[in-house]
């Protein structure tokens, strides 16, 4: 009796597996259909960008770049470098890829960077009272910064955001080569 039950259960499993395989094959061979009413109109409207992106010389954007540059330099690169001033701020492009993409305003400016840089990575280290000390470099230098202001690019897409790259200070090569990937 028990052997007959196991045999019937095994046969039922084979039939169900075969039917599922035939159904999947038939559904994959069916022609593609357009989206129905609910798929088109129920919270699937797509991106609706207004193109409301601030100007390149917005004080809040410049302040954001200054703060994040100083934080990055001190936290990750052991330096006290900071951006002192922005000069010759200009727009490079606005929505260079068309209306259907996320609106971005590309900008460039000349910045003055000052401060001291921590141990230079390729300089020979010197022993200094229990710490290996490398040479320090003072930077009162003018550099070019490329940045973009992005609609809905801020915290949880509530406001605009900013991405930036200072030529000569892209140490993690995020926008390599020479900040080229930060430009349109």
Automatic annotation (TrEMBL):
> Does Signal appear among the keywords?
yes
Q: Which UniProt keywords apply?
A: Signal
Instruction: Tell me where on the tree of life, at the top rank, the source sits.
Output: Bacteria
Q: Which residues form the signal peptide?
A: 1-34
User: Which protein are we looking at?
Assistant: Secreted protein
Q: Which organism is it from?
A: Ancylobacter amanitiformis
């Amino acid at each position: 009796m028990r052997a007959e039950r196991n045999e019937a259960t095994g046969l039922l499993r084979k039939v169900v597996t075969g039917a599922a395989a035939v159904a999947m094959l038939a559904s994959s061979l069916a022609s593609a259909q357009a989206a129905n009413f609910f798929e088109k109109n129920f919270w699937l409207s797509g991106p609706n960008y207004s193109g409301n992106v601030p100007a390149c010389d917005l004080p809040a954007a410049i302040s954001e770049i200054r703060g994040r540059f100083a934080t990055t330099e001190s936290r990750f690169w052991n330096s006290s470098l900071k951006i002192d001033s922005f000069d010759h701020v200009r727009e490079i492009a606005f929505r260079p890829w068309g209306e259907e993409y996320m609106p971005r305003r590309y900008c460039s400016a000349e910045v003055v960077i000052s401060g001291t840089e921590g141990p230079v990575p390729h300089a020979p280290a010197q022993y200094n009272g229990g710490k290996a000390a490398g040479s320090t470099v003072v930077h009162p230098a003018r550099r070019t910064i490329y940045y973009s202001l992005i609609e809905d690019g801020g915290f949880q897409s509530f406001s605009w955001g900013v991405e930036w790259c200072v030529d000569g200070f892209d140490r993690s090569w995020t926008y390599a080569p020479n900040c080229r990937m930060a430009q349109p």
